[in-house]
Amino acid sequence: MSLLPDGASLEEWVQDCFLAYRGRGVTLSALDAEVLSRWAQSGTPFDVIARGIRRAAEKSAWHAAPGEPVLRSLRACRRDVESEIRRHAVQSTGATEQRRSSRGPRLPADQRTQALAELRRLAEERPGLADEIAPLEAAIAGNPPSGRERWDLLEARLLRALPFPERLEVLKDVRYRTGELSGKASRRAQTLARRFQRSAALRKKLGLPSFW
Description:
Layout: H1 10-22, H2 30-41, H3 46-63, H4 78-91, H5 95-101, H6 109-125, H7 130-141, H8 148-160, H9 164-178, H10 187-206
Helix pairs in contact: 1-3, 1-10, 3-4, 3-10, 6-7, 7-8, 8-10, 9-10
């Protein structure tokens, strides 16, 4: 199907999200289905679970070999998803949580320092990218953009600043890693997959770990 139905369950949305970040089709095992059922029964919002799956995929993408799926099972996301669930439970204070969740990711001080150091290193090594690195530095330093889409836009600008052969290499990698989703995932999952794989491939090309 091209789109999930309006009445899709949380389990269906999570499976669609997992499929997007994995980059290829998969049937959930009985153990995966059990984990997913527990998350659904906890009453946790989909966005919180999706954030944990993305976090797990970000870590895995850094080490994934060519042709290897970023995620092998939903259970591989369990630690990161349940960490997000705990964080959500602590922060859930009505309107306050709504305001926080609308903001971009805020890094702990040590990670923020490391991220800024990596970006400054990259700007020194590749001065042609400095104009597109600067907005990322500003965002991480203390003015995080609201929502994932804004981060995706900053990364897209950085990708466009790459020399054409390098940009083409990244885009070919993205197509390779998402090609199997055509006709197997929702339109939303396919878009999510392309954006995630673009981010992962770009960071790998530039030697940047996942910080945002």
